[in-house]
Amino acid sequence: MELQQVLKERRTVRRFSQTPVPDEELRALLDAGRLASCARNDQRLRYTVVRTPELVNRIFTFTAWAGSVTPRRDPVPGMTAPTAFIVVTGKKEEASSPLLQTDCGAAIQTIQLAAWEKGIGCCWMGAIDRQAIHSLLELPGDCAILYIIALGYAAEKPVHDDIDDPGKVKYYLDDNDLLHVPKLTVDAIASWK
Amino acid sequence: MELQQVLKERRTVRRFSQTPVPDEELRALLDAGRLASCARNDQRLRYTVVRTPELVNRIFTFTAWAGSVTPRRDPVPGMTAPTAFIVVTGKKEEASSPLLQTDCGAAIQTIQLAAWEKGIGCCWMGAIDRQAIHSLLELPGDCAILYIIALGYAAEKPVHDDIDDPGKVKYYLDDNDLLHVPKLTVDAIASWK
């Protein structure tokens, strides 16, 4: 798929087909993410890929979904819930480092773009019970969960709408249950010198 | 260009052709960046695009370049220095927010990917004199510089090398002045559950 098409079309997905994503596809996403920019090329992020149904279902119970369209658009286990999670971790003592957070943003965005081409939708989540997930996955004590990515084959295709008013950024479902994501135009966010 | 090619080939660039990048190309980069994922769709990032030679040259004096290959690979004004900067800003009181930092990572990585397709190289910089740049650009007092992106048409094409040892991530120039960027393999950074 052309880069431009992916950059334009990709949106966060919160409805998933229940067809499992093969391991080689999940691996390809990490293969893209590992090449993202990171501070000093230190590559401090680590990933735990969870795709066994029992663990996926347990992690799902530790997540909170899109505030603006809850509860109408909460994924339903066995019907529209994610079929895998990628848990993004770092060292506990570095978890609040701004540079590690930006590394996270660059890597997760790259994973999301790579996923879109494969028909895999992603929802990057920060509203999660980190302690519960850490314990469930038996992660090492010196490791901290930064974010998780919920994923699965996409069963919705949200759209973006151009807006100029920073007060109107709230996403919403229309009468056809299509998710709209208002995005500020270049003119609204950029100045030139 | 195919997404896969961009994801594989894109690397940070620190040598630039002195041909200016047209405004419409710079605008296209922001048009990609504005659609990147961000927390709660709040879109709190703003951009100042600097491409007038005098200001670009002044900003250049407020930047510190790749630690590992300095001074051998420092860009030279008028020969290999960037021809534009994108200054990424946020509100001062939110500047240290982890979520704003991850938003920054997602947006800057997206801009870098969009640039690569156009032959434009980027260097995402945090080692900068924020106060001096803020003052030079006469930015508002409630605005904070998060990072800057140095850019211009690429005059080098660094490569990545696969490695398994997290102790060997330091990038280096080989005997042909080609920049190598060691990147950890998927097996070195991921576990599966």
Kindly describe this structure.
The structure is a homodimer of 193-residue chains. Chain A folds into 2 domains: 3-157, NADH Oxidase; 159-193, putative fmn-dependent nitroreductase like fold, CATH 2.20.180. In chain A, 30% of the residues lie in helices and 24% in strands. The first copy, chain A, has 6 helices and 8 strands. A 4-stranded antiparallel β-sheet of chain A has the order 1-2-4-3, sandwiched between helices. In chain A, a hairpin with a 5-residue loop joins strand 6 (172-173) and strand 7 (179-184). In chain A, helix 2 packs across helix 4 (98-117). The longest helix of chain A has 20 residues, at 98-117. Chain A is globular and about 45 Å long. The mean pLDDT of chain A is 95. At the A-B interface, helix 1, helix 2, strand 1, helix 4 and strand 7 of A face helix 1, helix 2, strand 1, helix 4 and strand 7 of B.
Low-confidence parts of chain A, pLDDT < 50 over ≥5 residues?
none
Largest interface, Cβ cutoff 8 Å: A-B, 71 and 71 residues
- Terminus-to-terminus distance of chain A: 35 Å
Count of distinct structural domains of chain A: 2
Residue share in β-strands of chain A: 15-25%
Within CATH, the superfamily of the largest domain in chain A carries the name NADH Oxidase
Mean pLDDT of chain A: 95
How are strands sequenced across the largest beta sheet of chain A?
1-2-4-3
Largest sheet of chain A, in brief, is: 4 strands, antiparallel
- If you consult CATH, what is the topology of the largest domain in chain A? NADH Oxidase
CATH class of the largest domain in chain A: Alpha Beta
If you compute it from the alpha carbons, what radius of gyration of chain A comes out, rounded to the nearest whole angstrom?
Answer: 17 Å
Number of helices of chain A: 6
The class by helix and strand makeup of chain A works out as alpha+beta
* Total strands of chain A: 8
Name the overall outline of chain A: globular
